[in-house]
Design a protein that fits this description.
Largest sheet: 5 strands, parallel
Strand order of the largest sheet: 2-3-1-4-5
Structural class: alpha/beta
Oligomer: single chain
Number of strands: 5
Strand content: 5-15%
Shape: globular
C-alpha cells in the first residue's frame, strides 16, 4: 500500500560575524555548497519519500514492498468458507489477466460424490497445484481459490513454487462473523448448517504466517474492491476488459467447500 531542504544554506557562520567580514561573501557561503544540489539533488524527492512504500500494499499487509508483476506466478486466495474468497479471486483474475482454479470445481471433477476425506483433500490440492504450475509455465498467472485451512497445504505450495522458481503471493480474505451470518441467512435456500460450517472451519483455520496480503470483506463489494485496487490495480490486465459491476450482496461460497 523527507528531510528539510537546505541545512547548509543556513550555517551558523553567517550569524556569528563571519557573515559580515567577507568570509560570507567570498564565495564560501555562495560557492554552491548551499545550492550545489546537495539539498535538491533528489535525495528528498528521488522517490524515497514518494516511492509508494506506504501505498503499495505495505499499509495493508505490513510486508509487501512492490506491486505484483503481470507475468507467470501464483496468487493463492485463502480463508474460511463464507468470507468471500471467490469474489476476491474473480476480481484478481480479471484484473491481472490470470486463470482461476478452484478446489470446489476440481474436487467435483475428481470425486462426483465427494466424502471430504483426507485422501480426497490431498488429491484435490495435488491436482490444483499441478494445474497451477502448468498455467505458470506458459507465463500466465494462476489464481487459486481454496480454503488453505491447514498450514501444511500452504507450505506444500510454497515448496512447489520454490522448486519451480516461481513467485507466489498469498491473499487471506477475512470477514466479521456477524456479517457472514447475515449474508448466509440472506442467501436463498440457506440453512443453519451453512453457518455451522463457517464456524467449524473458523476454529480449525491455522493462521497464515509469513508475507501475505489481507483483505477485509466486511464492508461490502465497494470497499473490498478498493482494497484490491490499491494493491493489484497497478498491474495492467492482459487481454481483459474490466466490466462495471453493480453493488450487491457479496458472494458467499457454497458450504460444501472443505479444507
Amino acid at each position: 500500500m523527507g528531510d528539510p531542504h537546505g541545512p547548509d544554506a543556513r550555517i551558523e557562520s553567517s550569524q556569528n560575524g563571519s557573515a559580515q567580514n567577507g568570509s560570507a561573501q567570498n564565495g564560501s557561503a555562495q560557492n554552491g555548497t548551499a545550492q550545489n544540489g546537495s539539498a535538491q539533488n533528489g535525495t528528498a524527492q528521488n522517490g524515497t519519500a514518494q516511492n509508494g512504500s506506504a501505498q503499495n500494499g505495505s499499509a495493508q499487509n505490513g510486508s509487501k514492498t512492490d506491486r505484483p508483476r503481470a507475468d507467470g506466478r501464483v496468487i493463492a486466495i485463502c480463508g474460511v468458507p463464507g468470507v468471500g474468497k471467490t469474489t476476491t479471486a474473480e476480481w484478481i483474475t480479471d484484473n491481472v489477466g490470470g486463470q482461476l482454479l478452484r478446489t470446489d470445481v476440481i474436487r467435483k471433477e475428481l470425486f462426483p460424490d465427494p466424502s471430504y476425506t483426507a485422501e480426497e483433500r490431498r488429491r484435490t490440492y495435488a491436482e490444483l497445484f499441478d494445474r497451477a504450475f502448468e498455467v505458470v509455465s506458459t507465463g500466465e498467472v494462476a489464481v487459486l481459490d481454496a480454503t488453505f485451512a491447514r498450514r501444511r497445504h500452504r507450505d506444500w505450495l510454497r515448496e512447489r513454487a520454490a522448486q519451480a522458481d516461481v513467485d507466489i503471493e498469498f491473499v487471506e480474505v477475512e470477514c466479521a462473523e456477524p456479517v457472514v451470518r447475515d449474508r448466509i441467512a440472506a442467501r436463498e435456500g440457506a440453512s443453519d448448517a451453512d453457518f455451522e460450517v463457517y464456524l467449524y472451519y473458523r476454529y480449525r483455520f491455522e493462521p497464515v504466517r509469513g508475507e501475505h496480503l489481507t483483505v477485509d470483506n466486511s464492508d461490502g463489494l465497494a470497499e473490498t474492491y478498493a482494497q484490491l485496487e490499491q494493491y493489484f490495480g497497478g498491474v495492467e490486465a492482459v487481454g481483459v476488459e474490466r466490466s462495471a459491476e453493480t453493488e450487491g450482496p457479496t458472494e458467499i461460497e457454497q458450504s460444501s467447500e472443505a479444507e
